[in-house]
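Technical annex B. To support the medicinal chemistry partners, we prepared a structural model of the target in complex with iron/sulfur cluster, based solely on the information shown next.
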Amino acid sequence: EKKLLSVKDLRTNFRTADGELSAVRGISFDLDKGETLCIVGESGCGKSITSLSLMGLLPSNGYISKESSINLNGTDLSKLPKERLRSIRGRDISMIFQEPMTALNPVLTIGYQLREPLMLHQHLSKQKAHAKGIELLTQVGIPYPEKRMKQYPHELSGGMRQRVMIAIALSCRPQLLIADEPTTALDVTIQAQILDLMDDLKNQLGMGVIMVTHDMGVVAEIADRVMVMYAGEKVEEGDVESIFTNPQHPYTRGLLNSVPDIDDPSFELEAIPGSLPNLNEEISGCRFHPRCPFATDRCKADSPKEYELHSAHRVKCWLQEEVEIHADDRETIPS
Ligand code: SF4
Ligand code: MG
């Protein structure tokens, strides 16, 4: 069985003073063992909320609706009690957060923070966990690991801290690693080093990786498949090759034109004027229509269905209908 994760109709809402907000609006996708899926889109598109939903780490006013399922090896995570979910996190699923300083405890040594999950989840003795910690630091390319074990987070550089986070995340050999902008704050050289390392470990452990990023350079480097999100919806999904060489959704094409930094608020998307709608803004039809240069009356009225170009490439846009009609025409032309 190759399939690791199957997410069906994920809907994540928030209760706020202004009413219900829908941050994720019915997303479905699968992930195989040893596969890397990159989730891309602008800040606020729902990509981080999607990863937090998978981990069961939503803020207290957030919840996943009943019709959703998050199936990891036959267990629906969205229906598990908090304690069961906590034990699965750290054993079967790990997450690498955006900001290493907020995720590492500043008053505990690196060694303590590496040993603790190993002792808790793998029931290693303190000595064995210590030896394993040193081995992990070596694996993530940290020199003088014995010395580092005794140090506190502030004694390490940003790149080192992020590698420590990766070591902790991988310490329990998770089946699924969820990484949210893990290298955004790092300089380019260290970023490349860490992406290489994640890729190696993915191949060695056969673990599935979900990487949330706004950086199409990172996507090109590590993705097997790409999911593009807009305003809480999946608008396109495909293998990395198809997305880069044959993007179909107007938003995806805009994203690819807008490299290098779509998350920089001062940066105007050249091909896509306007900005993401607010979460509580109801938009009729296609949620991208206010920004889409190809929008028709139909786009304003009806939400597009999802079209499948070939098995690995899906697009939610009415423009695909014309493509389909033309394909039918071709078939009816006698040769
Ligand atoms: Fe643009 Fe219409 Fe496609 Fe939406 S469905 S992306 S508005 S062409
Ligand atoms: Mg984010």
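Notes passed to the chemistry partners:
Residues 265-271, 329-335 have pLDDT under 50 and may be disordered.
Residues 66 and 79 are 8 Å apart (CA to CA).
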